[in-house]
Amino acid sequence: IIDVLDDIVRGGSGTQANKAQSLISAVFTWAIAEERVENNPAYRIPKRVPERARERVCSHDELRKLWRAFDATINGRPDAAPVTPQIARALQLLILTALRRSEVAGARRSEFEGSTWVIPSERMKAKRQHIVMLPPLAAQIVRDAAAESKHPELLFPGRENRELDANSVTRAMMRTCKRLGINGLSVHALRRTAASEMGRLQVAPEIIERVLAHTPSGVTMKHYNLHSYAPEKLAALLRWQNALSHIIESETTSPA
User: Fold this and answer.
1) What is the C-alpha end-to-end distance of the chain, expressed in Å?
2) pTM, full prediction
């Protein structure tokens, strides 16, 4: 087990090694409970890398570089990010909507009606339907992706015209960051950045939670308050889109 975990670390992902270790240990814990094995060989193996708090967000300069690189890919310019045009659009959509990579990667044409995107419960982490109110720039990206896609249903088809693997989005982000000299930035950091920026723009925390599709807490919010918050979510994403447009067009380096 140690050799396997060390191989994963050498492959460049200490976090994945820690996740693999937790999964291996959980399997053996289950096997002990089922009386299939007598001990857990993963028990008390030290983590291969220290766990760090998830607090990385994009600076404005990094957002500008990423967006322009994705734009260059879409428009065929030489300063392009090392990704396909469809993945470049998917990553721009992630920046604008604060969605998870799997939610964007698996987007279906049938989920869209105008500027409203209804992601069904089976595609959501919390297994609750999520309504995304697309601001104009995001809606245009969706239209462009639909026009470019050769698949009758998938918005961002991957290899062999199959559903885009969310891990492909991660690898594309890593290649782009390496090309641009950006360190320590994950796909999930795009979601965290959008949420942080909306907070900076004085969007109410409850609305940010709704944009992120986090599960409501408390009996009232879970079972009695059935308001969709669609207008409020659209207002929040419009505020974020306008701020992002200013960041992209600006030449001044500033923190997020």
Assistant:
1) 40
2) 0.76
